[in-house]
Description:
The chain is 35% helix and 15% strand. It is of the alpha/beta class. The strands form 4 sheets. Strands 2-1-3-4-5-12-13 form a 7-stranded mixed sheet. The chain has a 7-stranded mixed sheet with strand order 15-14-16-17-18-25-26, with helices on both faces. It has a 6-stranded parallel sheet with strand order 8-7-6-9-10-11, sandwiched between helices. The longest helix is centred in the middle third of the chain and has 18 residues, at 319-336. The protein is elongated, with a radius of gyration of 29 Å. The protein starts with a helix and ends in a 9-residue tail after the last helix. The model is unreliable at 1-12 and 673-687 (pLDDT under 50).
Amino acid sequence: MSVAGANTQAAGAIPRRLFYYNAGFLRQADLRRMLALAGHKLRLGLPGPEDGVVVWGRSPYAQRGDAIAARYNVPLIRIEDAFLRSIRPGRMGDRPLGLLIDGQGVHFDSATPSTLEAILSKHPLDDSNLLTRSRDGIARIRALDLSKYNLHHIDAPLPTPGYVLVVDQTVGDASIRHSGANVARFAEMLATAQIEHPGARIVIKSHPETQLGLRHGHYTTADQTDLIQLLTTPVSPWALLEGAIAVYTVSSQLGFEAILAGHRPRVFGQPFYAGWGLTSDAFPIDRRKRNLTKTQLFAAAMILAPTWVDPCRNRLCSFEEAVDQLEAEARAYREDRFGHVAIGMRVWKRSRLQAVFGRERSLIFQDNPARAIAKARATDRSVLVWAGKEPADLPANLTIHRVEDGFLRSRGLGAELVPPLSLVTDDLGIYYDPTRESRLERLIQTPLAPDAARRTEKLIATLITARLSKYNLPGNLPDLPEGLRVLVPGQVEDDASIRVGAGDIRTNLGLLQAARSAYPDATLIYKPHPDVEAGLRPGAIPEIALRGLADIIAHHADPIQLIEACDAVVTMTSLLGFEALLRGKRVTCLGAPFYAGWGLTQDLGPIPTRRQRAADGHPLPRPNLLALAHAALIAYPRYFDPVSRKPCPPEVVVHRLATGTDSATGLGLRLLAKLQGRFATYSRFWR
């Protein structure tokens, strides 16, 4: 079933035209756009017999809509945030990733059934594909440390395990009142936790909005004793649940997450997750009689009931795609929240670097390494350094991330000042340098979950269908003879990957000679590097030297069409070798690129022992192609959507490149690129 079909089934029959009577719907363009994507037109005025009225949950302003809906006898639709919302609370301006659009009630109001409750009560919840998605979803949000809000610090110190967890909520929240509870219920809950666990340590977790100073909670420091701790730091909810021996809640979403983490929470309100045999309910709901598994509960609450929206491509999406987006946003927040000082960044790149890494705190660009180090220490920032520009004397006790272009970069060359859509950061080394371990190497050796493998397989298939590469330059396919065809991609000879990652052969001429020696009877197709063809970088081979070596010189050819037309690739360290692996071609490496040494290529270069054997000398498990591709295309890079200007998953960038909807390079940069070509001989002065 399609995403839209699943949402329609979950929401029931909801009128297309919805009338609203509070300013929130007027002010929030994102909310109106989400409802429009779900098929609804928002209107001012009075509803007709085929229309409905929309309100936000049980907010105080909802009473206006309630009254109009009752007067005109039309459906009343209540909107609420879905359970994976955003990085920050709505009060700080973040838009939600999903909505619960409910024509029956609202999920936190136990007085009347909601659409979510109807699904939990009546839906079979027995489809094997749905339950697999649910199990994978639970595992994934736990592994990614995602919750409704995501301002928590995953490395924040936690209480010593073995405590009873009591969950606070904000005073006056509608989910408390409409779950049949009140302020007194929180005092009762804390007292019960003490009685049922005499002598145990109790940790009270404050609400994220309380931690941010936006709203008051029910507990204060006055509730602390020798055995009771009020936890006000933004810790990981999943890590906190892992250390708990019991969980007490009124109606917090953390109670739902406690179920997913394996707890049977003690519940003192009547939230949506109570009454299904997964909680110990102080105040049971008589109409809820069904026993469910946590997998079924998750399937209803996260997959069937919500309407999820992709904010980059501006369309409805699946639960999994919403997680992809939130993963990208959470990674950007977590890696950038303290800010960076940037060294060795070319002026023309700084705007894009600021957009990618400066969302939380603006980047401070500094060309002088000593001043950059001092600034980083004075402001508690890390250092971003362009990988090829790293000073030799950076102190070891400083957090350093080396930056480079990603493997799905752009439509156009970096040498022609086309900004990248993906960038990698590496706290260990950098992917093209085999002389030291990189973060990418560790990611390649990380076992893949089944859902990650399926996602990678789908991404590879999309790349192949769309014929995407790193630069995505237009080109033709030359006429090729029948028989064995071998592609030999030329490289920029002063490129860092050649300087540190090549073996004995370090020139394009030497590469061609080695390829001819390995394949004496094959048709050798030599493809000069685009930067070299553009006259921007060194590596050109004189025409006379090519005679007898290359059968065809594929000038300005489409690299993907060449890969598809050839049987094998011989390379020093070119990314075309990786792109050929993705397309099932034989690849011979004369150097040690990141994709070599894992058993997927024929390796003739200086492969690091650590890629093959552990420190104790035992052979390492061999990653498959999906593990390599997941690391290189999903886990290692960070992607930026130039349309929404948000962090995004790789699938969004693939869509931009495939449809040509990425932003064009500005006129000023194009003119500067032409000047670079004219004065390429003097590039040492501006590179």
